[in-house]
Amino acid sequence: MRWAGPGLFALAAGAVLGVVTHSPVPVLAGLVAVPLVGRMRERRAARAGAERAAAAVAALCATLAAELRAGRPPHLALAEAVETAGWPESAELAGAAGLLLSAARFGGDVPQALRSAGRRREGLHGLAAVAACWQVAVDGGAGLAAALDRAAGALRAEADQRDDLRAQLAGPRSTAVLLALLPVFGLVLGSGLGADPSAVLLHTPAGLACLVAGGLLECAGLAWTGRIIRAAEGRPS
């Protein structure tokens, strides 16, 4: 829910500041922050879900390769690997698992099922590589287990690269957040020195104009920084 957690905190903080400063502006700001915080949480959850799905595909490749080396037929090995990996019990992967199990158990077009499953949600794109491996093995007689091992290794390497890039971007992201909070520190410092910046910003036309302009510039700076970070991570803006 968008109202849970940080969203409720933003609303409560706005209400408290509104009472302290005798102004409705902090309350309105808290209300505006609720859907924004909710959207950020949804994006973060979607990214985490995609990473879990990518890890599940890598694990499926390794399990399927092990089943093939144990001497199981490819279709039976795929069904066993999907069930062993727990895909049917996962809410995020159950739809893809249904497609794969149907094709594996009833003699369907496995490569097409793999491609269709890979399009069901973000993070399952690695199933397209499994489909290519399967197609080559069936048409050309290549070793499917070895190809799956290479696909699993490539997916793990991609995950490691993503984690390493995220660690390198942690510093710039923290710096951007700190710079965004500097105006708040300035207001607190001004209040501590005996000035009353909230009275000027919230109760005079010039102060309100400055507050709105500063808020818009702050949002633009954060959006620009976020776009740069997403571009560096290879994610869509």
TrEMBL record:
Bilayer-crossing regions: 176-194, 206-225
Localisation: Cell membrane
Nucleus among keywords: no
Domain Type II secretion system protein GspF: 61-188
Keywords tagged on the record: Cell membrane, Membrane, Transmembrane, Transmembrane helix
Membrane-topology descriptor: Multi-pass membrane protein
Entries under InterPro entries matching the protein: T2SS_GspF_dom
Main location: membrane
Recorded superkingdom: Bacteria
Keyword Membrane: yes
Identification of the protein by name: Type II secretion system F family protein
Lineage of the organism: Bacteria, Bacillati, Actinomycetota, Actinomycetes, Kitasatosporales
